[in-house]
Amino acid sequence: MKQREPEKQKSTHGGAGRGQGRKTKDQVAGLRRVNVSLDQGSISRLREIGAGELSLGIRMAAAAVKNGLQEKIMGADTAGTSFWDGILSDVRGLCAEYEGIVVIGGAAVWLQTKKFLGQQFLQTSHDADFYMGLQDFSMLKDIEEVTKNPRLGKHQLIRNGVDFDIYVEKSNDLAVPYEDADRFSEVIEGIRCACREHLLVLKLRAFENRQHSAKGQKDAKDIAKILALLSESEDRKPAALDHLRGEDRKRLKEIADTPKLFQDIAQSNVHLAKQLRGMAKRGLDYVETAHEPESSRPNRVTGSSPGYGGGKKPRQGPDIDY
């Protein structure tokens, strides 16, 4: 009689499947794929916490609950020490060490939002991005361990467990040259960050590259928010819009005409969403007027840029994870 072969014991260590062994942004190992059931509101909030990544948002929320630190996932300042406060502190320290740093990305949007819109529209991130001049970057490399990421066209630094994405003058082909970003930058809460106009240009280029992904949805919300920021006339820099492309108007109008983006930003508060959308429309009016062709534009004060030409060909950057 043929004996039945013993069943092979199932491995509990995972196989060589796709994505096995990759490091996550929060450096967590031993991950296991599970199915969860969530309502749309929870999905949206968790994606915000994880900067567009649902799984990361769930892990960050779980860690905060475990430690009894609700403010850690909200970016609040109730205890004076939070995850986001720690990132801002590190960014502030880097800016003090290297005067040529210009903060871009989510951290810059957060600072500009706090300045012009207030606390109710703030959205934290899990990392920070900045632009550096060649001299400062050379000094940074002598002190810190900096890793080059050729695929994404950037360098990376990890300090105090936080990822910093670094874009370098003449080395990372962003849509805004470093010298322009530096000239139009402004200091908010001790941090030198890109102006609203340049943030708009950079976010548009990022959105083009990943508009059909979760990060692209966050980019769209950031663009909607930046348009609202530009409704405030204080410290506007119309000359900085020189790097917009002609086709950007259509994309900006589509974003400004998408009510759901503003509802998500306002966390389903209908009154706030309507108010924010009205501000974005006014911001779009400013952008369209400031970016008119030089021949049809009336004389205007162009801000602090003596080299503004109005007709400069915009730069096209690589597929940058901005």
Describe, in plain words, how this protein is organized in 3D:
The chain is built from 12 helices and 7 strands. Helix content is 43%, strand content 10%.
User: Order of strands in the sheet with the most strands?
Assistant: 1-2-5-4-3
Sheet bearing the most strands, described? Answer: 5 strands, mixed
Which range best describes the helical content: under 10%, 10-25%, 25-40%, 40-55%, 55-70% or over 70%? 40-55%
Low-confidence stretches: 10-16, 66-81, 294-320
What's the SSE pattern? HHHHEHEHEEEHEEHHHHH
Question: What coarse outline follows from CA principal-axis ratios?
Answer: globular
Mean pLDDT, to the nearest integer, reads 79
* The CATH class of the largest domain: Alpha Beta
The name CATH uses for the topology of the largest domain is Beta Polymerase, domain 2
What fraction of the residues are assigned to beta strands by DSSP?
5-15%
